[in-house]
Amino acid sequence: MKVTIKKEDYEKILGHARKERPDEACGLIGGIDRDDGVREIKKVYLLTNMDHTSEHFSLDPAEQLKAVKDMRSEGLKPLGNWHSHPESPSRSSKEDIRLAFDSRASYLILSLMDDDNPVLNSFHVENGISSKEELEIV
Ligand SMILES: [Zn+2]
């Protein structure tokens, strides 16, 4: 599947991820699955990492509910989530795979390991296997 994210939304999560360092930052993504097979992220949500560590994240359930309500009110659907890796590469950790319950979701990981070259990837996780999706910043 091909996933697109708007440049302004990418900048939004990048800014938040930088601000939250050294902790991981996290949030949700909402949008649409187009008829041509492209998954279009139309809105990103910045949520609180309740774990407050650089190793993993937990989304705040109340904020999550609020974000999903907002998506529904705008005709969008929840497409998955995003989180940052302040000091490690942009790929799913064992923990990320363990916690990826939804095989239809896209899991975005933003690596800040190289400060000048942040890397954002999208992953699909199914049966314990994480595979990279095509992601385009538009
Ligand atoms: Zn992770």
List the helices and strands and how they pair.
Elements lengths: L1 E4 L1 H14 L5 E8 L4 E10 L13 H13 L3 E9 L8 H5 L7 E6 L7 E8 L2 E9 L1
The structure holds zinc ion.
Descriptive tags:
alpha/beta, Cytidine Deaminase, domain 2, binds zinc ion
Describe the structure.
- With 138 residues, the chain is α/β, with parallel strands linked by helices.
- It has a single domain (2-137), classed as Cytidine Deaminase, domain 2 (3-Layer(aba) Sandwich), CATH 3.40.140.
- It is built from three helices and seven strands, in the order βαββαβαβββ.
- The chain has helices spanning 7-20, 61-73, 94-98; strands at 2-5, 26-33, 38-47, 77-85, 106-111, 119-126, 129-137.
- It starts with a strand and ends with a strand.
- Residues 83, 85, 93, 96, 109 line the site of zinc ion.
CATH homologous superfamily (4th level) name: Cytidine Deaminase, domain 2
Name the structural class.
Answer: alpha/beta
Rg, Cα atoms, Å = 14 Å
Number of strands: 7
What percentage of amino acids are in beta strands?
A: 35-45%
| CATH fold label | Cytidine Deaminase, domain 2
Shape: globular
**Helicity range of the residues?**
10-25%
The small-molecule ligands in this entry are: zinc ion
Output the CATH class name.
Answer: Alpha Beta
Q: Which stretches are low in confidence, meaning pLDDT under 50 for 5 or more residues running? A: none
In total, the number of domains comes to: 1
Order of helices and strands: EHEEHEHEEE
- What is the terminal-to-terminal distance? 16 Å
**Whole-number mean pLDDT:** 97
> How many separate helices?
3
**Reported CATH architecture:** 3-Layer(aba) Sandwich
Strand order of the largest sheet: 1-3-2-4-5-6-7
Query: Which sheet architecture does the biggest sheet show?
Result: 7 strands, mixed, barrel
